[in-house]
Specification:
The structure is a single chain. By secondary structure, this protein is mainly α. The chain has 7 helices and 3 strands, in the order ααβααββααα. It has a 3-stranded antiparallel sheet. Helix 1 (11-30) packs across helix 6. It is globular, with a radius of gyration of 18 Å. The chain starts with 10 loop residues before the first helix and ends with a helix.
């Protein structure tokens, strides 16, 4: 067998598995809010800066509009946001939080702290997490530009 084809030698497998398990860990906190993890990411972007175009949200989340549009449609049906045509450019779609979406921010404020508790048993120093974030950002930015 080729060494490079062994599962244990794959960075991508570790990233995939960590991502899947972290996303699963969010479920108990996000289900009561009526959000999936992907929807939670959209909400965080909008809580930070409301009234963004679909393209701006896509850039922040590194998602194509083909992936983002169905997600936004479901969120609009759930009453979290509204989509309108841009004032200056009718081709652009502007996404804005509804009152329900704004109120959800207060309900979600403890989600990050709850996720930190998931790591408490891990023998990893906070500095190592900070380095990991920087390394992952480098990987993401390198691959996203290709």
């Amino acid at each position: 067998m080729y060494e490079q084809l062994k599962l244990d030698n794959q960075l991508c497998f570790r990233l995939y598995t960590a991502s899947r398990l972290i996303t699963q860990a969010y479920h108990p906190m996000l289900d009561p809010l009526g959000l999936t993890y992907s929807q939670y990411l959209v909400m965080m972007v909008l809580w930070e800066n409301d009234n963004l175009t679909v393209n701006e949200i896509g850039r922040r989340l590194k998602l194509d509009s083909n992936t983002l549009t169905p997600l936004l449609q479901r969120m609009e049906r759930a009453g979290f946001l509204v989509r309108t045509h841009g004032i200056g450019d009718k081709r652009q779609t502007v996404v804005s939080l509804t009152q329900t979406g704004r109120r959800l921010e207060k309900k979600a404020k403890d989600v990050p702290a709850c996720m930190v508790k998931c790591w408490e048993g891990a023998p990893i120093a906070k500095e190592d997490f900070i380095k990991l974030i920087a390394s992952l950002d480098t990987i993401i930015n390198t691959l996203y530009q290709q």
